[in-house]
Design goal:
Elements lengths: L2 H6 L4 E7 L4 E7 L4 E7 L10 H19 L9 E9 L7 H7 L1 E9 H10 L4 E6 L3 E6 L5 E5 L11 H16 L8 H9 L4 H9 L5 H5 L1 H10 L3 H25 L5 E6 L6 H14 L3 E4 L5 H12 L6 H17 L1
Parallel strand pairs: 1-4, 4-5, 6-9, 9-10
Antiparallel strand pairs: 1-2, 2-3, 6-7, 7-8
Helix pairs in contact: 4-12, 5-6, 5-9, 5-10, 6-9, 9-10, 10-11
């Protein structure tokens, strides 16, 4: 072990990483909750796919390496963190070994991104988070540390209420519209214009022949939301249905965790940036789940990963620490 590694081993520097389908974010903080720097890398999911291991490796090298550089700290090979937590889309499978070869820490955990989203949303408090981005998953934790997870089994078998699901439902209905099975409501034109195709079959063929990725298809959800906001009742019904399924999942999670009294439920991901999803979800939640309070996330998942890194190291998560994180994270976000 080099001298520089030994010199920096006892520095109380914590790193939290949120690894997703579009990008990877690393946040460095000291033991008092002062955010030192951020770093960004590319996608870090599907490490088991061809080229995935190298893509994950580069995402970690770029995000954590950039954060260390921005903080004026030694490079990855010469630094040992007090604690490191990696919240990764898809969980730790195929990732822990790769990341462990790159990042050294006194406390080291590679896990799913759902706990980081919850910890960021509730600032470490018990509750439930609903993640609805390209995919969807519901995750909760109670005061004793008992956890539950619902959904998140992928676009073929699960993921109702997600961006991919809404895009897929809209295209399915556009096909029915094309075939005269439902009354026209402009769905064909909406899909063809967005994807730049002349026939619906060209869109489906692009996906079947791997010319269009899942993320590409899911990006159509934003256009679908815009059409719904403009008055398309068919898409509105789909968004309402997706929100209702997510609420039913929250109800199941709350029963598993036996929540008593009020508890926070946060929504994160691209679907919750749409006003209609927030409206339908919050209204259904209020009716269906006793004690559930729909709350806006206090922090993003990367800060959630920092909070988990603190917990791993036995650092108390108090309000002073949270205020420091809040102050410095907002300042850093404005600089990005």
């Amino acid at each position: 072990m080099s001298k520089s590694v030994i010199e920096h081993r006892n520095q109380k520097i914590f790193v939290g990483v949120d690894g997703g389908q579009s990008h990877t974010e690393a946040v460095l903080a000291d033991e008092n909750g002062n955010v030192l720097s951020r770093g960004f890398g590319g996608a870090s999911n599907h490490a088991e796919h061809p080229g995935g291991r190298e893509r994950l490796r580069n995402a970690i090298l770029n995000s954590v390496g950039e954060a260390l550089k921005n903080a004026g700290l030694p490079p990855l090979g010469e630094f040992v963190f007090a604690s490191a937590h990696f919240g990764m889309t898809g969980g730790a499978d195929f990732k822990e070994e790769i990341i462990g070869e790159i990042v050294k820490a006194g406390h080291f955990v590679v896990g799913h991104d759902a706990p980081t989203a919850l910890f960021g949303s509730t600032a470490g408090a018990p509750g439930i988070v609903v993640i609805a981005g390209t995919g969807s998953v519901i995750y909760g934790e109670d005061e004793s540390g008992k956890t539950t997870r619902i959904g998140g089994l992928g676009y073929l078998f699960s993921d109702e209420g997600s961006g991919f699901w809404l895009a897929l439902q809209t295209i399915r209905l556009a096909i029915k519209e094309q075939d005269g099975l439902i009354e026209p409501s402009g769905l064909q034109e909406l899909a063809l214009e967005f994807f730049g195709r002349r026939q619906i079959r060209e869109i489906t063929d692009d996906f079947y022949y791997a010319k269009m990725s899942r993320d590409d298809l899911a990006s159509f959800a934003r256009r679908a939301h815009e059409a719904a906001a403009a008055g398309n009742e068919v898409i509105r019904e789909q968004i309402n249905y997706g929100a209702h399924v997510l609420v039913k999942s929250v109800l199941s999670a709350s029963k598993r965790l036996n929540f008593q009294g009020d508890f926070p439920v946060a929504g994160v991901g691209g679907m919750f940036r749409a006003p209609l999803m927030q409206k339908y979800f919050s209204e259904s939640l209020q009716k269906e789940v006793s004690g559930a309070i729909f709350t806006q996330p206090r922090f993003n998942p990367a800060i959630g990963a920092v909070l988990l890194a603190y917990r791993q190291a036995g650092i108390e998560i108090n309000e002073n620490l949270l205020k420091n994180l809040e102050k410095d994270s907002k300042k850093n976000e404005q600089d990005i």
